[in-house]
Amino acid sequence: MKFSLKLLLCTMIIMAITLGVGGFYYVNYVFETSLEREVGQALDENSILKFAFETAALNSPVKYDMLQDTTIEQIAANLENSGQSTGRLIRLSNEEKQTLYASEGFETDGELLAKVSENIKAYRVVNLGEHYYIHTGNTVEALDRELYLETMKDVSVVFEERAMGFTVYRRMTAVMLIVGAMIMHLIASWLTKPIRLLTKATEQMAAGDYDYRAKVVSNDELGQLTKDFNEMAEALEENVNQLEEEIQAREDFVGAFAHELKTPLTSIIGYADMLRSRKLDEEKSFLSANYIYTEGKRLEAMSIRLLDIMVTRHGKAEFLPVSTESLFAYIQDMFVTNKQYRFVYECEPAVVTAEGNLIKTVLINLLDNACKASEDGGVIEVTGRKVEEGYRFTVTDYGIGIPKEEISKITKAFYMVDKSRARSKNGAGLGLSLCAEILALHHSKLEITSTPGEGTQMSFVLAEGGKEV
């Protein structure tokens, strides 16, 4: 069952119970008020009749100073005839509570009469057939005789009004429930509109439309829920896009890796087959063996860097204080035999917090990359300076440079700006990717500025001492 229907049903049940109970108590209150008024009038009439009877008894001729039964009957008949228009019935009983006179239709037991005594009046409501009466009882003192006067007043109208009140109220309740149901249906539809919009949004997202957003139509809790849902949808869309990018990157990585393996392996297999299948002169044999060796070293370097990337992504580095002078001394020793380029080193002494071996790998890869981008005899500058953020390492070359649109891509695995040039120098497109992974482990990043034809500057910042970057 829809929430709007549940809301409508619950509201109608509450309305029905409220109107029913409220109507019952209201009609009953009116009835009891009217009945109480009729009871008061009946008791007053009884008292008036008592007074009238006692007055008539005093004015009647009597024998032996005692009121005779016949006289009592005569007085009672006169009293009854004087009140015919009121629908009143009377009954007079003697001292033994035996009936002396009773109006026609006065049919009731002696239950009330048993409760009447001197100075005590009593009443009750009785139902005789289709009529309701207020039965009252009182004592009458007349010429040393104690008589009992009972009256019955027809109050059927009061009960008919109560029945009519219930009938009218039931009809009004039915009309109010119908009108209330229509109004409540509109209100329920309006209140649950945000829920319907959220439901539609979830269906759209379940179908793959992650760009869909629910419309905010209120400023209450449901409106806030819609805003939170949209924020969640945006976060989900970002995560999905990120996952898709990662999946695409993995597919590209696998494709590039397969391609990078295929090219040198094809050459290695071809030259090896040439050496195996025919006899070559010494020069051709040397060239073939040298090509096999060169491509094999490139495959070895590529596999080592791939392994380093995997270890860096899943490993944990132990950060210790490292002297910048020791890092510069290490890379100078590594490239001291390289006479093709002119290296310029400038180091400001300091201590950084890092994993020394990994930072050495970063610097070596940056220098190696600078060498591949430079012509023979080119200048490569390596500097280290204290900055506000920490300690900045910078490697600058004056080689071929990198186009602006390529800068954001060169840290991806196997990506090479000039593939023919990189392969000619044993490049595999993994060095900068490894650098990016290592620097991310150090909460740093590779910053690249480059101008095609003028050169490239690559730098990164490490925390100095115990301070975070």
Write a brief structural summary:
The chain is of the alpha+beta class. It has eleven helices and twelve strands.
CATH superfamily of the largest domain: PAS domain
Count of individual helical segments = 11
- Estimate the helix proportion, in percent: 55-70%
Distance between the termini: 57 Å
Count of β-strands: 12
- Low-confidence segments, given as residue ranges, are 416-428
- The side-by-side strand order for the widest beta sheet comes to 2-1-5-4-3
The ordered H/E elements are HHEEHEEEHHHHEHEEHEEHHEE
Query: In the residues, how many domains can be counted?
Result: 3
Structural class: alpha+beta
- The appropriate CATH architecture of the largest domain is 2-Layer Sandwich
CATH topology of the largest domain: Beta-Lactamase
Q: What fraction of residues sit in β-strands? A: 15-25%
Structure description:
- The protein is of the alpha+beta class and 469 residues long.
- Helices cover 55% and strands 18% of the residues.
- It has a 5-stranded antiparallel β-sheet with strand order 2-1-5-4-3.
- Strand 3 (122-128) and strand 4 form a beta hairpin.
- Helix 1 (3-58) runs antiparallel to helix 4.
- The chain is rod-shaped and about 175 Å long.
